[in-house]
Design brief:
The structure is a homodimer of 450-residue chains.
Chain A (H helix, E strand, L loop, with lengths): L7 E2 L9 E3 L1 H4 L8 E2 L4 E2 L2 H5 L4 H8 L5 E3 L2 H10 L4 E3 L1 H7 L4 E6 L10 H13 L4 E6 L3 H13 L3 E6 H6 L1 H9 L3 E5 L5 H9 L7 H13 L6 E3 L6 H20 L6 E5 L4 H15 L6 E7 L4 H4 L1 E6 L8 E6 L21 H8 L4 E5 L1 H15 L5 H20 L4 E6 L7 H8 L17
Parallel strand pairs in A: 7-17, 8-9, 8-11, 9-10, 12-13, 12-17, 13-16
Antiparallel strand pairs in A: 1-6, 2-5, 3-4, 6-7, 14-15
Chain lengths: 450, 450
Amino acid sequence: MTNKVPYKIYLNEDEMPTRWLNIKGFMKEKPDPLINPSTGKPCTADELKAVFCDELVAQELNATDKYIDIPQPILDFYKLYRPSPLVRAYGLEKALDTPAEIYYKFEGNNTSGSHKLNSAAAQIYYAKAQGLKSVTTETGAGQWGTALSMAGAFFDMPVKVYMVKVSYEQKPFRRNVMNVYGADVVASPSTTTEAGRRILAEHPDTVGSLGCAISEAVEVAASDPTHSTRYVLGSVLDQVLLHQSVIGLETKAALDKIGRKPDIIVGCAGGGSNLGGLIAPFMAEKLEGKANPEIIAVEPASCPSLTRGTYRYDFCDTGKICPQAKMYTLGCDFIPSANHAGGLRYHGMSPILSKLYHDKMMTAKSYVQSDVFEAAVKFARIEGTLPAPESSHAIKGAIDAALECKKKGEKKVIVFGLTGTGYFDMKAYDEYLSGRMTDYIPNDKEIGVE
Amino acid sequence: MTNKVPYKIYLNEDEMPTRWLNIKGFMKEKPDPLINPSTGKPCTADELKAVFCDELVAQELNATDKYIDIPQPILDFYKLYRPSPLVRAYGLEKALDTPAEIYYKFEGNNTSGSHKLNSAAAQIYYAKAQGLKSVTTETGAGQWGTALSMAGAFFDMPVKVYMVKVSYEQKPFRRNVMNVYGADVVASPSTTTEAGRRILAEHPDTVGSLGCAISEAVEVAASDPTHSTRYVLGSVLDQVLLHQSVIGLETKAALDKIGRKPDIIVGCAGGGSNLGGLIAPFMAEKLEGKANPEIIAVEPASCPSLTRGTYRYDFCDTGKICPQAKMYTLGCDFIPSANHAGGLRYHGMSPILSKLYHDKMMTAKSYVQSDVFEAAVKFARIEGTLPAPESSHAIKGAIDAALECKKKGEKKVIVFGLTGTGYFDMKAYDEYLSGRMTDYIPNDKEIGVE
């Protein structure tokens, strides 16, 4: 280390990115297209426009533009909570006694508590610009629903959130936060949709599932007789990775300011929204042959899409009403073990990241959750911030990379994504601290490997 | 407005304050001293050292130094979560259609969720530097206990928190956060102290009180046979205002950067820690006759120490074991209405602020909580951040000041303190949104006015 790097690197407002980066624009071989299961052919723009708003469909299908301008109202919204800090983890480096430099991009400094707001703002803005009257979505733990509610309040767009019933009941505070932002939050399954009524008739005592909540939210959007409602989704889709590229672009600008280039980039991966955003400009350089950072996706051993899934076409949702995507998947019927805490529970993976992983542009590893929580508690005590369980997968990955550097005496620059805070995940922390947390690794049959 | 002010003004690391500001050093007439109730005379340093650690006693009694250097380890800790942003509330200005400029200093971007960490870090550091083995404290809603736990983890100092039983049971997540940082959290009253056992024997079903928790925490510190335990307190004391001056010093430095001087400064006031810190450098200028900003303390109508209390010697605690302070008080037996949400429930007020208020260097006003929550929800929807109920008193005060500017066509600069976030106060938000919140204003008899 030549010059002294500050603990936190903030960009000035005029240094903030004004364009998103479209990874697909840099890929020579593009990801395979979404398939309409009823036609067996690639989804057309018109088919997608029945569910998603027009501009977002255009972004979803845009595989050529390298950059897309961020509209000014979205930039203005970003300024409410961005730039997020790039933090030098001096304490962690010292505790690990590693020669590596460790940096993390912290996306938790906003009320939604995560990076989800970056795409929520964009999706709500485009819906408003199109003159739509409302949007629907589903939420599990509640981060995405909260982010969407915040953006809805800002752009004055009504938001209806189908919240998995078990979360609705166990996390009333999350629901209340969405209410503060004016969102209509419905426990799913509900009697407000045909899908919900059918499921309730068959399973009156069900606690709900993400798959069911998606079905309800999509039904409400698709069946609006005035066709002025659309469905929005917080991860997996190409458009979401596009919006989340603001994370990586800020990270790169901040590293440039201090004259650093990342050797290793680590991010947690559920649907891929955070990881895809964090790595965007670095992957672009890698695809162009200008740099060659090691990029590591970290996922839970209980839901190991990349590390143990297969690369094939599969439904994006459990209810099998959404398009099929070519991706690493555990099978759309896969339900992660109930004892798994936090997010990253998605059976598949962003098609863009799946393709890049398949092309060996990045690697992946998985950890059991007790190891992840051990890293989370260590991080909280040293660096101050209480991390979300999802983000803590990246912490664990970064710690292991830093220890590897120590073993080899390598002075590498490690960057990881700290996607959010864990204030609403205290039950899981309590389980860990009291020794009641157990780990689960699915067997081959459960993940569809014969 | 001549030049365009960014949404958020961050100081660079080398612009952060390296000294605290001691308001007492600027006051010609000093606040009256703490009185030892058993001698009837001013508390001596030795008497205070039985409960507080040595350096903090020195700071408590220091009425002459204008500035006190911040030790490097505390500066390093501050860098983990400071500087906090000074935010230009463009959205709020527009929504209010006011010619005023509104700024807020946001102290909630850390895991404790409030400004309390500024003093917790200092108090834990001095305890560690003195070679003490542990510290004790009480906590109600849990912000102070969380802050102290975080600092304890960082400086490797064991922390024991007596948490009011009703909060311990109703807010298990707060308790769990403290556990993550390694604190020992005990529901008060407990069987671990004589005071606790006595109260439990008399009132086996009690839900506890702050007064009782203080008694337990002080007893543990004072009765340690090795004399290596001390008690720490998160508000009211002069030393706490000293540490919190970092808020105001950063605010002033940020305003200087954009060429602004505050005309009106608004802060919420419970024990006075946040307000005293926010106004520190501005009050110093006012005391020196260099500037004359209007300074407004905002308190709840249900606990109106400044606006309706009397200025006299009173006990600092309900249990009457602590020294007596000359302050605005509702009487140490005053218990705020149970329907009052959030903090600011203290019967008294910082002796420094009480003296300044008595000397007409600042004004005060009170609001009922439904008006405060109305302002909170408005703020959340426009500015994004979900405010703590305490902080929302300042929001309401700032909004009213901005509307007054609108009426008079005045282009004033308003600065208020946004002390924290409301993630752990969703029950109160829910009551407000569902119309179940009621307001309470104590009658004269309840506040000891005959």
